[in-house]
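Weekly puzzle thread! Below is a chain. First person to post its structure in token form gets bragging rights.
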Amino acid sequence: MRKSFKPKDDWSKSTRNKLLCKENKQEYYIDKVLKSIGVIYQRERPIVVDSKKYFIDFLVTSVIRNGVRDKVRVAIEVDGEYHFSKEQEQKDQEKNSALLSSSRVNSVIRISTKNASSMNAESLLVAILSAKAKAVTYYYD
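Winning reply:
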């Protein structure tokens, strides 16, 4: 279930709207899978760490199984080809470190656009549950 989120400042509102408008088909697919697996998440969620603002493609905050809500803080990033340049890899590592240093994110899952469409409900749920309590970054590329 997608949880509605509305940024308060104008820059965040504008940036979030731009990101949502340029959503690619792999992000759309992951969004569809998340809706099907009983998780509560937010789309293009801004998070401020040390006065720097980052947007997370998906922030999963809870997993609901058998009527029980299990809190998680897992960021999911869907990475296109440009994420594999040296410069962007460095920026992504800095972002991962910043997110993991915040109280809002326990783990980061990075899925390449190449592999996003092969993630099914079961594999994505297993990835989220595996990542929920560990301050690490998982790569699916």
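Puzzle host: Confirmed. Bonus trivia for everyone else. The longest helix spans residues 86-101.
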